[in-house]
Amino acid sequence: MSTQTFLIVENNALYRKILRRLIESQTGWSVAAEAADLKEVMLYLAHGSPDVIVVDIDLPETNGIEAIRCILQQDPKACIIAVSDFPDEEFRRAGLKAGALHYILKEDLDVPRLAQLLASCPAISRHSPCSEGRPPDR
After folding, report:
1. Of 38, 26, 29, 98, whose CA–CA distance to 63 is shortest?
2. If we measure between CA atoms, which residue out of 16, 21, 6 comes closest to residue 36?
3. What are 55-79's pLDDT values in tens digits?
4. For 4-118, CATH number?
5. Cα(93)–Cα(75) distance, rounded to whole angstroms?
6. Cα(40)–Cα(11) distance, integer angstroms
7. pTM score, whole prediction
8. What pLDDT is stored for residue 92 in this prediction?
């Protein structure tokens, strides 16, 4: 079994720690790096390419929506999962429109849900229906 690498993009250090524990609790999942803002993300992506990028919608300076767009300019095949405290449909639509494969509320994120979301990431599931590009149901 190959290891799936994650980049956590979250400005709250406590939530980064929670996400890291959640991810690393699973065999075959590993956090390659953490970033608190877009600048740190872009520095990391210049040298590495994780399988999955978990992006908080509420980031300092540049919001998560813009961060998703910038990440996809750098790596068009990135598997991005947007996370948020905001249940508003407007934020969900904006995150998906920007290019995230999924948008999930932080309170709903657990290991089974994350595993379900990862099944549609091309880097994770080479045989998924969306392995040829972004899923049509964004």
Report:
1. 38
2. 16
3. 999 998 889 999 999 999 999 989 9
4. 3.40.50.2300
5. 21
6. 11
7. 0.85
8. 93
The tokens of 64 are what? Answer: 């998560």
In total, the chain counts a number of residues equal to 138
Cα separation, 134 vs 100, whole angstroms:
9
List Cβ<8 Å contacts ≥24 apart for 60-68. Answer: 60/11, 60/36, 61/37, 62/37, 62/38, 64/9, 64/95, 65/94, 65/95, 65/98, 66/38, 66/98, 67/9, 67/38, 67/41, 68/95, 68/98, 68/99, 68/100
Q: Residue type for 65, please?
A: I
Burial class (CB in 10 A: 0-12, 13-18, 19+), 20: middle
User: What are the domain boundaries of the chain?
Assistant: 4-118
